[in-house]
Structure formats: structure tokens, C-alpha cells
Write a structure and sequence with these properties.
By secondary structure, the protein is α/β, with parallel strands linked by helices. The chain folds into two domains: about 180 residues, Class I glutamine amidotransferase (GATase) domain (Rossmann fold, 3-Layer(aba) Sandwich), CATH 3.40.50.880; about 140 residues, Rossmann fold (3-Layer(aba) Sandwich). It contains 13 helices and 17 strands. It has a seven-stranded mixed β-sheet with strand order 5-2-1-6-7-11-10, sandwiched between helices. It has a four-stranded antiparallel β-sheet with strand order 3-4-15-14, with no helix packed on it. It has a four-stranded parallel β-sheet with strand order 13-12-16-17. Helix 6 links the parallel strand 8 and strand 9. Helix 7 packs antiparallel against helix 8 and helix 12 runs antiparallel to helix 13. The chain is globular, with a radius of gyration of 22 Å.
Length: about 400
């Protein structure tokens, strides 16, 4: 009898162990704690040269952590107007953590911006590392001191916490990510917290719902600064899925059912090892979309790669720094934003890897392209989880 019990129990234990092992890697990858930059910088930092004919847009960043899409989507969209000097700016010019083994070099520190006597036409506040009232007083004071009567301010997603801490939104409407609404609003009683809109507006103060709504917020401020014709040009550039800026929004928070769908996916579905190739001239919007959406799909691993060296310069001049192992191996798929073919040597290195290509001249909004593919891989319920996590409703 004991032998029979052992024969029955052992396969069950092996099966459960296999499920747990299958789930551990994607969960560990998703919740991997951010690591601040340490050591010297691999790039020599020089001050940008502003075009005096253009308006200045400051995107505030936190070197400890700044949400990738919140920062890079506005960076691309404002640059695409061809009418703005767009700067990612931090308290100190230290590489900004945006995902595991990947940093972006800010263009200015607060002190450097002040030394250049730059006036802010727009200030954008992405979700930073602190989401409650315990903000960095230096950062808060700098924002307040540079918000002039004609300056537009846009808080994105949980950047609402930093924006609310300035006091500028007291008595004014502000919104945030639906899944974080209760938490963030509980720390700031003076703003008027609202939901079910993509963008709020009160005078020169704007705010957006969650991550994906960085697009609607940026387009709204672009129209305010540069007019409808310029906004339409940028809207079409990213193949935005509407002829006008979407304002209606369903503020749906993640619930237990959504989390259960994640658990089912990591336990019973194939958890893929994913890579994304970063190359000189890469489109910041496309890159941010791919990294943000597939980062939320709970892959077994998700790494970024640089074929030559450790740095890449993006389309609009940002320097990305890769600190991981750039040898491409053991991947289920490699996501690539490029139109030209690989060289024979590159093809040889990638012969056993499935290449997923995203040509920028495609006709579909890339957020929708990625969501559709995630749905085909893991089913409509998991796709819905990714949508809600982006506040794309």
C-alpha cells in the first residue's frame, strides 16, 4: 500500500513543482526591483543646443525609476511636432532606470537647465519612483519655480502624485491610473479627483489616466501649444486609432479575476523568453510601446540587446545604455523595429531565433498591434488584463 501511495504522490509532486517553476521566472521578472545606476557613465555628456525659435518642453524624470511609456511617448510626440526643444531632465544628470539592464541618459540636470536660463513652455510629469506625499522637496520646488502663468503642465498616470504634491492642482481636477486611483487620491485631499476621462484640463493644468493615456495627454497639450493642424500631423504619425483625441474613458481597476488570469497564464501557458533589439535611430514611441506591453505579458524573461557596444542613440537623440549581456541566445522571439535586412553575420547569429518585425510605416496603432498578438498567444482574458494594466479602456 505504501508503495502504491508513493507511486501516486510522486508524479503529483513533480507536476506541482513543474507548475511552480514555470510560474517563478515570469513573476520574478515582473517584480524585479529597480536598481539605480552605479559607476561611471559610458557616454560623455554635453549640453544640448536649444533652437530659440522652438518652445521648450521639460519631461521630469527620476533616476531611480521613471515609467518607460509615460516618459518616452511624450518625448517622441512633442519632438514629432518639429516645433519643440524636448528635454528629459533630472535633479542630477544620472542615467535613469527604465527597465532591467536598460537606462536612458537625461539631457539636462536642474542646475544645467537653470544655467542655460531655459523657460518652460510645458512641463510633463511621468510616474516617478514615489507615489505618495513623501516627495523629493528639491524636485517639487523646481517644478513650482518653473511653472509660469503661460506654462502648460501635464501629469501622466501616477505622476499625479508628484503633480498633486506641488499644490498647483489644489481645487482643480486631476486623474490618475484607475488601478491606483484609490491609493494615490487617499494621500492628497486638496485636488478634485475625477475618473472616466482620458485627460483633465483646468486652465494650463492637465492630467491623464493611466499609462496608455500619455498619448491623449500629449496630443491635447500639443494642440494647445501648436494648434490643431500640428496635432493632427502627430496623431497620424503614430497611426492613432481615431480621427480626434479620445476623451471618453472607462476607469476600470484591476480586480481579483484579472490577477487570477495572470496566475493561470504563468502556471499553464508557455512563458516565453523575449528579447528586443535596440539600434541607432530607433523610434522612441515604437520602442516604448513594445517594451511596455510585452513587459506586462509576464514573460519568463525580457531582455534588451545592442548588437555593437553598449549604447544606442534614438531617433530624436536620446542615449540608451544597456548594462546586460548582449549575446543573443536562448530566445523564443526577438522583437525588432527596423526596415533594412540583417547582415549575413547577424542572420547567422539569429538563425535559431524567431524575429518579430515592426516596420514604423505600418498602418496600425502599435499598441493595438501588440495587444492583438498577445491575445492570440494567451487568449482574450489575458489580453484584457494587459489592457487594464495600461488603463487602455
Amino acid at each position: 500500500m505504501k508503495i502504491k501511495k508513493t507511486h501516486f504522490i510522486l508524479p503529483v509532486v513533480i507536476f506541482i513543482s513543474a507548475l511552480v517553476m514555470n510560474a517563478c521566472r515570469p513573476l520574478r521578472n515582473f517584480y524585479d526591483a529597480p536598481k539605480a545606476w552605479s559607476g561611471d557613465y559610458p557616454v560623455k555628456a554635453s549640453l544640448p543646443v536649444p533652437d530659440p525659435a522652438k518652445k521648450n518642453v521639460f519631461i521630469i524624470a527620476d533616476s531611480k525609476l521613471t515609467v518607460l511609456f509615460d516618459m518616452l511617448a511624450p518625448y517622441y510626440l512633442f519632438n514629432a511636432t518639429e516645433k519643440a526643444n524636448v528635454y528629459i531632465i533630472t535633479k542630477e544628470r544620472v542615467p535613469i532606470f527604465i527597465r532591467r539592464d536598460l537606462f536612458v541618459m537625461p539631457q539636462l540636470s536642474f542646475r544645467e537647465a537653470d544655467s542655460m536660463q531655459l523657460r518652460a513652455d510645458a512641463i510633463v510629469i511621468p510616474a516617478l519612483s514615489i507615489r505618495d506625499e513623501h516627495q523629493d522637496p528639491v524636485l517639487i520646488d523646481w517644478i513650482k519655480n518653473h511653472f509660469l502663468p503661460e506654462t502648460k503642465m501635464l501629469s501622466i498616470c501616477d505622476g499625479s502624485a508628484t503633480a498633486a504634491a506641488t499644490g498647483l492642482y489644489d481645487g482643480k481636477p486631476i486623474t490618475t491610473h484607475a488601478s491606483d486611483f484609490a491609493y494615490v487620491s487617499s494621500h492628497f485631499s486638496k485636488p478634485v479627483w475625477v475618473q472616466h476621462v482620458t485627460v483633465t484640463k483646468s486652465g494650463n493644468l492637465f492630467s491623464t489616466a493611466g499609462v496608455s493615456n500619455a498619448v491623449e495627454g500629449s496630443l491635447t497639450v500639443i494642440e494647445e501649444l501648436f494648434g490643431k493642424e500640428t496635432m493632427k500631423k502627430v496623431l497620424q504619425d503614430v497611426h492613432y486609432p481615431s480621427a480626434e483625441i479620445k476623451t471618453a474613458h472607462r476607469s476600470i481597476a484591476l480586480n481579483g479575476s484579472d490577477k487570477f488570469n495572470v496566475l493561470k497564464k504563468v502556471l499553464f501557458r508557455k512563458n516565453r523568453d523575449i528579447g528586443a533589439l535596440l539600434e541607432n535611430g530607433i523610434n522612441e514611441f515604437d520602442m516604448a510601446t513594445i517594451l511596455e506591453l510585452y513587459g506586462r505579458s509576464f514573460p519568463a524573461s525580457f531582455k534588451t540587446y545592442v548588437l555593437n557596444g553598449s549604447t544606442v542613440q534614438t531617433k530624436y537623440g536620446l542615449v540608451l545604455i544597456s548594462t546586460g549581456d548582449n549575446r543573443i541566445k536562448g530566445l523564443d522571439e526577438l522583437h525588432v523595429v527596423r526596415t533594412e535586412p540583417f547582415s549575413p553575420a547577424e542572420e547567422a547569429d539569429l538563425k535559431n531565433t524567431r524575429i518579430i518585425r515592426y516596420p514604423h510605416e505600418g498602418s496600425e496603432y502599435l499598441v493595438n498591434t501588440c495587444l492583438e498578438r498577445i491575445g492570440k498567444q494567451y487568449g482574450p482574458r489575458f489580453r484584457n488584463f494587459v489592457k487594464i494594466s495600461l488603463d487602455y479602456n
